[in-house]
Amino acid sequence: MASGNPENPGFGRVTDPPSPLGFGRVIRQSLRLGEARRLWETRIVTKCPLFFIVVPAILTIGITIAAFYDLKLNETKQSLEMFLPDQMESLVHGKVFTDICFKDNKEEISFACSQHPILLALEDTHALLTIQLLARYPTLQINNITVDNSVIFGGVTVSNHTNDRHGNNPILRARAIRLIYVLSPVGESNEWITGFLRSMHRMKSTFEGATLHFTSSNSLPEEMERNGELLVPWMPYMVLTLIIFCALICSVPGDPIASQPLLGLAAMLNACMAVCGAISTLVYLQYPYLHMILIMPFLILSIGVDNMFLMLKCWRIRMTNSGHSPKSDAQSDSVLISAITEVSAPIFVTSLTDGISFAIGVWSDFIAVRIFCTYCALAILYMFVLQSTFFVAIMTLHCRREVSSRHWLCCMKLEPDTDFIEKAVCNSGSLTVTGKGYFDCLYTLLAHCYENKHVKGISLLIYTLYLFQSMNWIIQLPLGLDLKLLTPDGSYVAEELRTQEIMFSEYGAFCFCIIYTTNISLNERSNRRKIISVYNNLTSGTLVSKGDFWLHEFEEYTNETTDTLSRKDFQKVLSKFLDHVEFSKYRSDIRFTPNGQIEAIKMIMRVRKLGSQNDEPRADFLRNHMSSSGLSGFVYDTSFLIVDQQSVTRHNVVINVFIAISVMFGISAILVPRPVSVVVIAVSILSINIGVVGALSAAGTRLDIISMITIIMSIGFSVDYTTHIAIHFLTQRTNRVERTLRAVCFPILQAAISTVIGVAILGFVPSYMIRTFVLTVLFVVCIGLVHALYFLPVLLDFTVPYSEYIVLYHPKDSS
């Protein structure tokens, strides 16, 4: 067995005998090469610290100025399309209703607005009497015109004794009335909508005797963008809080020499530069931008200071274990190089896994997921590069200042405190493995508890209950995008949608079915009756009712003709049918080819029983009947977009989680080539994410595109905890649990607290979208912390044999 110094935590080289295929030797050489390269890079930075401070700063400022000097922001409209996948069954036909319908361009008179008669009745001097004449439900028949009243009157009570021949009843009572204004698609419409919304907001506060709800075609996208605008006022508070926290953590009470609060500020500046650089780069390249990207700075700034705690802790330990205080800049740089090299592997692994988790989201089917993950992945890449150069250069100067006994703020020469190193280590909580300090008893007590077989049994029981409850919550996780949750809390759009679901749930809009007739001879009555039979089947359920189908009327019109007409005669009869004023409305339901043949026809159906719980059953019912009809075509309703989004979301989440965990498993297997340890790491990653998803379900979160982003994010973050614990555990040969806790307990706690502090501020923002991000980060931090400091040490001690370990890599080995 190879020997090494187990006193210092770090990353080591493999000591197993090489396998016949030489795999162990290859891994060992690869790891040593990586450590040597990191050592070489750190030496360059410490040789020229000012260069690596100035150049990254100039580059960041330069790309920021270049991006915003001639700003051509590719600002993607944050509408419902951003939250839908690229390819869905309801969109793959490549055509919408306007592509199928017949367009009559011969009308000399056109109307900019189409109004319901009730809007005209309200202007009458005898409005009440006129409305009573119009109040029939669900439709009003005036000669050959059908007026849809179901979208106007809500919460309706009708008289069941006086229905007309069309099945419509007089309205006795209506709890809501909806006025609809249809505008032409011209530029002036947006100005009218803006004025309309402004007037409605003023009127709502003074409206008496009723509750006023309103919306417009622009309202949902505008309210969705307001989620990002709500974040901006909280940015200064988050930055200030993190700066104060980092400054306090890096300070040693009563010792202005060992205190390094400016190092915490430098870590914040490093993360800010990464955020600015990533956003500026993508904006300069005119990559799409969404307002939800404003969440990204909070996330990156919160996790950007984590590695600083680990690097500072390792510097303290190296200073203590050196046995004497460095006397020169060269000696200080040597200690720093050794410390940075020691923690380079864990820092690289955590940055790599965080970046990969977002990179996986870049390949998502959802536009919003791709855009958000691209910005985050690039920011993490920039942050790692800047930590390796800019931050290490600043840390070099600060370590030199401390070694030369200068004040942390004004750099004045002070008399050094002979015990400053020991006090700094004790106050920061980063004790040496062999030293005595405030937390010695705690570490020893925890280690003895974790190694006790009874405690292991209790831990197994607790862990089993944790998994069982998490899986139970996951099963109850509601699926699908709720439009009301895409807007900030208290949004007038959400209130209107909520009222609409309650008051106007009995009748919805019209859905339709398109039948391609290129291979069907409609001049044969048997084919027409077959199509009518399909229509009857499609409208036979409780969730869809009959609407208006021209073929019904055509069959009655041609009742006395023979069963089979020639194509020419059929076209003549159809032409006469459509020329009738009563049936002219059906012209848009038939699509003709240039030579006069019928290419496609449309069936109109009425959606019933609105509500998200009925969307998927309705879609399945219509699609199954259409697929079994033997006809070529498709059915469509706007709710299909949500249904398909749910299906794709479920599929994407499963695939992304599987890919992400597989990649994390592969990285762990390469960097920690120990079979049992790798399995333990994989189990811990999976366990943390099961707990996170279960906790999100318990908190009332839905499985939608927002939670999809956060689940992808949590996979990368969960690796941070497992990696530090597993690597430090494997470097110890004796008292493995206790030594591991001594080495990483406080840095992990500090990192967790800084992340929670930075993100928790957003909990005050009244938005479901932002709350979901906050909850995900809080859950992954808390659950990951419990795994790192409790479940994982117990599991490692129980499963990993003493023969499975790695030996520390020392910089002198590569020199």
TrEMBL record:
It holds the Pfam family Sterol-sensing. It comes from the Eukaryota. GO terms for biological process: endocytosis; molting cycle, collagen and cuticulin-based cuticle. Gene3D superfamilies: Multidrug efflux transporter AcrB transmembrane domain. The chain crosses the membrane at residues 48-69, 231-250, 262-287, 293-315, 367-397, 460-481, 501-522, 653-672, 678-698, 705-729, 741-765, 772-792. One of its GO terms (cellular component) is plasma membrane. Keywords: Membrane, Transmembrane, Transmembrane helix. The keyword Membrane applies. Residues 229-397 form the SSD domain. Belongs to the patched family. This is Patched family domain-containing protein.
